[in-house]
Amino acid sequence: MAVKIALAGNPNCGKTTLFNALTGSNQFVGNWPGVTVEKKEGRLKGHKDVTIMDLPGIYSLSPYTLEEVVARNYLVADRPDAIINIVDGTNIERNLYLSTQIMELGIPVIMAVNMMDIVAKNGDVIHIDKLSQKLGCEVVEISALKGTGITKAAEKAVALAHQKKKVTPAHAFASEVEDIIAKVEDKISSDIPQEQKRFFAIKLLEKDDKISELLSLMPDVSAEIRELEDHFDDDTESIITNERYVYISSIIGECLTKAKKGEKLSTSDKIDRFVTNRFFALPIFALVMFIVYYVSITTVGGFLTDWTNDTLFGEWIVPGARTLLENIHCAGWLTGLVVDGIISGVGAVLGFVPQMLVLFIFLAFLESCGYMSRIAFIMDRIFRKFGLSGKSFIPMLIGSGCGVPGVMASRTIENDRDRKMTIMTTTFVPCGAKLPIIALIAGAFFHNSGWVAWSAYFVGVAAIICSGIILKKTKMFAGDPAPFVMELPAYHWPTVGNVLRSMWERGWSFIKKAGTIILLSTIVLWFLMNFGWSNGTFGMLDFDGLEGAALEAAQAECVLAKVGSAIAWIFAPLGWTKAGNGWKMAVAAVSGLIAKENVVATFGQLFGFAEVAEDGSEIWKSLSLVMTPVAAYGFLVFNLLCAPCFAAMGAIKREMNNVKWFWFAIGYQCILAYIVSLCIYQIGTLITVGTFGVGTVVAFLLIIGFIYLLFRPYKESNTLNFDAKKTVSAK
Amino acid sequence: MKTLKDAKVGETVKATKLTGEGPVKRRIMDMGITKGVEIYVRKVAPLGDPVEVTVRGYELSLRKADAEMIQVE
């Protein structure tokens, strides 16, 4: 008989370690339908017919966080055959709070008290027989890290699932509360099985607004609620929460014997005293960030990525594939498509993978050792002002090297709203590939002035801050409440296996994206750039051996150039018009979608140079003839802020896991880039030349609108804006 | 009325009442801060907010704005 067992427990209780130990490599990682909460399923080792479902780590079954709603909808609607409730033995009091709620679901539960090795080391004793008796379920001691007791726990859970025994919780609240719960249970329609009634009765009393979606008939319990609230002089939700902790406090003395605590601090306390110290915290944080950035972007990761791009793809695969295809007399266009289109395009994307993997090792380490929560603790004060989380610092820092791992790093942010905001704004930070564009504009128009580069970073940071403030007031972001009440878990050494597994899961999800959406995009763009009308017939264009005016003329024939000319009017208000060359700017900006470095090379070709230096010094003169310095600066800003390269867009799509949100992010970036660039050109021209026209008026109106959006008042919402039905029905 | 926000670092206080309502209050209570529980104020973050407290044997951080909802003695 096929059996489903769910793993439920608090965050940081060792749930993932246990899941990995139970299932080994038999795992399927995905997302819960409609939300970005990760869904992990696996087969129990040695049991083909036993599925283990790893639920998101939660503290409670309240209706206020996505993870909690997802978990409880699964438990209530899908009804697994048994639940393994993992409890952190070193933090048992708060962990039991979730247990009291899980017991009420009417599903067989086995409690696995984890981290028993550490409990023993601390000299504490947990009396599992007492615990078992007080909570009404079987209890086993395990250490997921060491692998002790886990087989026993799994076997017991399987046995329990086969028994199909009806369960009733052993714990009880104050008699006044129990009386009222009994009354409400009687009111619940009979299609709800007896063993689930307590759960629904309590949810009804708590005025849980998401529960109506799971109940067919909603009884009126307002009289019972009033009775309770009058008696306890508090709201029902708080009364019930209180009752749970009162019960736990009443049994904890019998279940746990703590060693005599002297003045001695635990190792974790000692580390924490130093790491989040008033004076050392920020320097240590800066040092950790420096190491992460230095190793994953500058040195090891950067070296591996350069090697993949320049040597592996640049010297071996691309020329190798070209020779191979030419030797078998493959058609010229096909060779071009395969080598210059597909291999180069996907290669440019896969080149980021080594860098990403190095970064993911760091992230997995920082997360599982406990420092990541401290980062949020240290940085919260600054970032929450812009609707971001303290953890947003890492994606943005990494984003200054490369936006792709930057966006992927946003995964460490639990809060859905903070994470989406971080994903949308991370690529505003100028990444390494944007530096050649900065060098090009600085060299061609501003005598290589240092302020151009500095201002690029300033624009990026300002865009993040303003976007954060504006977006958090919009309807898209209103809704999810974001209380910052966060556990700071004890520090511990993560296992190598868990770190590597986490690295691989994240890296693999990006590689899959590179193989699909990114591949398709690069093929389309390659086609647009290499096909066109030459001498009146449509076909592939041949740029080989062309230079100067001939290359310039040939480039103007391609489909993309035609599209560029057709859409050049859109960019006229940005000043990309001089001498009828506006389409070149548009084409260069579009070519930046493959990789931002391409902007410079494309400009080179459009002005008749087959090859240009990284900063494009050959075309400085040509460029200065077609744009005013103000328009050029606007062009730079446009490229900094608009949609990033395909690789980064793929990462955004992966992390948003939602088409609507993906287009919202890309659309927002492009519109913001356009508006800022327009204002720079129009107002800059007014100041430098004194031209005042319709465009100037529009620019001022846009700025006024922007300031309004920035300063308009707003109210933080209190309800979770999320359709619980979707996760239930879409299974 | 004294709240957790006013408590000094190193002080141990007892929660007497939680004001406010909705998600933040529920979250604070879910995390174990309920009537009568002892809260030890461990430290304040380097930038002055949030605060770190020990409650029910573990470390919890919360913003001062939220700490204001917890009345203590």
What does this structure look like?
The complex is a heterodimer of chains A (731) and B (73). By secondary structure, chain A is α/β, with parallel strands linked by helices. Chain A has four domains: 3-171, P-loop containing nucleotide triphosphate hydrolases (Rossmann fold); 175-257, Orthogonal Bundle (Helix Hairpins), CATH 1.10.287; 293-431 and 451-463 and 501-511, no CATH class; 513-692, no CATH class. Chain A is 59% helix and 8% strand. Chain A is built from 32 helices and twelve strands. In chain A, a hairpin with a 2-residue loop joins strand 11 and strand 12. Chain A is elongated and about 90 Å long. Residues 724-731 of chain A have low confidence and may be disordered. With 73 residues, chain B is an alpha+beta fold. Chain B has one domain: SH3 type barrels, CATH 2.30.30. Helices cover 18% and strands 37% of the residues of chain B. Chain B has two helices and five strands, in the order βαβββαβ. Chain B has a five-stranded antiparallel beta sheet with strand order 4-3-2-1-5. Chain B is globular. The termini of chain B are close together. In chain B, 51% of the residues are buried. The A-B interface holds A 59-60, 62, 64, 91, 93-94, 97, 235, 237-238, 241-242, 245-246, 272, 276-279, 281-282, 373, 377-382, 384, 481, 483-490, 718-720 and B 18, 21-32, 34-35, 37, 43-50, 52, 56-63, 66. Strand 10 (485-487) of chain A pairs antiparallel with strand 4 (58-62) of chain B.
Protein topology:
The complex is a heterodimer of chains A (731) and B (73).
Chain A: E1 3-9, H1 15-23, E2 27-31, E3 38-43, E4 50-54, H2 66-78, E5 82-88, H3 92-102, E6 109-114, H4 116-121, E7 125-126, H5 128-135, E8 138-141, H6 150-163, H7 175-187, H8 197-205, H9 222-232, H10 236-255, E9 256-257, H11 267-275, H12 281-298, H13 300-327, H14 332-350, H15 352-369, H16 371-383, H17 393-399, H18 403-408, H19 416-426, H20 435-445, H21 450-472, E10 485-487, H22 496-530, E11 531-534, E12 537-540, H23 548-555, H24 559-567, H25 582-591, H26 598-606, H27 620-626, H28 629-641, H29 646-656, H30 659-688, H31 694-711, H32 724-729
Parallel strand pairs in A: 1-4, 1-5, 5-6, 6-8
Antiparallel strand pairs in A: 2-3, 3-4, 7-9, 11-12
Helix pairs in contact in A: 3-10, 5-10, 7-8, 7-9, 12-13, 12-15, 13-14, 13-15, 14-22, 15-22, 19-30, 20-21, 20-27, 20-28, 21-28, 22-29, 24-25, 25-26, 28-30, 29-30, 30-31
Chain B: E1 12-18, H1 22-30, E2 38-44, E3 51-55, E4 58-62, H2 64-67, E5 70-72
Antiparallel strand pairs in B: 1-2, 1-5, 2-3, 3-4
Binding site for Mg(2+) (chain A): 20-21, 23-24
Function (chain A): Probable transporter of a GTP-driven Fe(2+) uptake system.
Pfam families (chain A): FeoB_C, FeoB_Cyto, FeoB_N, Gate
